[in-house]
Amino acid sequence: EDELKANLPAEFAATRNRNPGLKATQLVLIPSVSLPPSANISTGVVELNADNRKIPLSWPIYEDLSKVGENGQPHQLDSLAIAAVRAFDPKNPVLKRVGAVNAGGSPQVSRELHPYTNFLREEDVPITSAIAVICSRPSDDYWKNVCNPRKEMRTDLAAILGRVVFVGQAGSGSDFHQSLIGNVPGVILQANCVESLLDDRVFKPMRSIYQIVIGLFWLGGMFW
Question: pTM of this prediction?
């Protein structure tokens, strides 16, 4: 709240004074890029779970602030991890396991509890610089001039074909998250979520009521 007040005071005040108001955990979609309607694009929400040991499956979102209070809003939207798996392999059995396809195999937004995963370390995730990718196939004279002195800064594009590729900041000092594998960029956590789904490293949590019952029995046993 303090950060929002300091950096976006007008937007913070406008949102705080909205009627009807937003609830504490609701999200408003802010598209990161503008795309033509015909683009073959799957959309996913980049928001991570507050407990970053968990893989986000979907989030309730408003398309924009004007939708707050309308019927049918907010609506569930795939997380970035689920959208990436759908694009990579829409028939992957993990989608059924996490409730992201219905009984007939058609896609649906998962409403299941976010499952746990274990992590690959940052050094185990293949990382290449954006300039190395651009210089492997410069698109125009500007990039050719930029890339000519940097012939060593090229990568084999065949190495990334057929893979899920994340474009994000790493090592820039921003968007860092404390996690079980240390203080890592958000893009590393996002990549871990997708890799976990594709590897089926998905551990479903028990529902809260079962956790409470088991906890009470365990506590009772301790006292006994």
Answer: 0.78
